[in-house]
Amino acid sequence: MTATILLVEDEERLARFIELELSSEGYNINVAHDGLTGLTMAREAPPDLLILDWMMPGMTGLEVCRRLRATGSKVPVILLTAKDEVSDRVAGLDAGADDYVVKPFSIEELLARIRAHLRRNQEDNPDLLQFEDLTLNRRTREVFRNGRTIELTAKEFDLLDYLLSHPRQVITRDQILEKVWGYDFMGDSNIIEVYVRYLRLKLEEKGEKRLIQTVRGVGYVLRD
Description:
Blueprint: E1 4-8, H1 12-24, E2 28-32, H2 35-44, E3 49-53, H3 61-70, E4 77-81, H4 86-94, E5 99-102, H5 107-124, E6 128-131, E7 134-137, E8 142-145, E9 148-149, H6 154-164, E10 171-172, H7 173-181, H8 191-203, E11 212-215, E12 219-222
Parallel strand pairs: 1-2, 1-3, 3-4, 4-5
Antiparallel strand pairs: 6-7, 7-8, 8-9, 10-12, 11-12
Helix pairs in contact: 2-3, 6-7, 6-8
InterPro entries: CheY-like_superfamily, OmpR/PhoB-type_DNA-bd, Sig_transdc_resp-reg_receiver, WalR-like, WH-like_DNA-bd_sf
DNA-binding region: 126-224
Domain Response regulatory: 4-118
């Protein structure tokens, strides 16, 4: 499963360095160079983790963090800053940040902190299902792939939720009918194939790999 990280850093050389390092670790990286753009991106396509520089022109990273928390966002936030006084750390954590990394920093330490927060977030948030670059939020009923929002009908969402709940497991047609449509479903016997086709059309843009695989004569499997 691939996590999406939003990096908001106005120092472009540093931002590029972090972006390359995180990309080489297999993360999907989106970058903004000012606070307002970063806030907009975080609201429109919530990342799995947010790395925020504190001191930016216009809107500071601290203000971005405050505004996100005010909307109920629980995305893990790591603050990057040259401020290393205890009072600064307290201010950052009180604004809603989960962690605080002082510049200059070791990229290995940043990577370790990212891994720790992503593990913790997944354990603490059963409403968030992820597979590869696909994310489903049960609480908000939102779906994202590669940072873009995917609009699904209620039944498409329920079907995808069921598949994401059983990654890499072959799910039979009967299991899908029972869990997604209910025991008493008396509709078209091809309804599953129809909805899988709908999902594939919405989930797959040109060049993106197919995640929902057909197991002939049995059912379907979410496979990387």
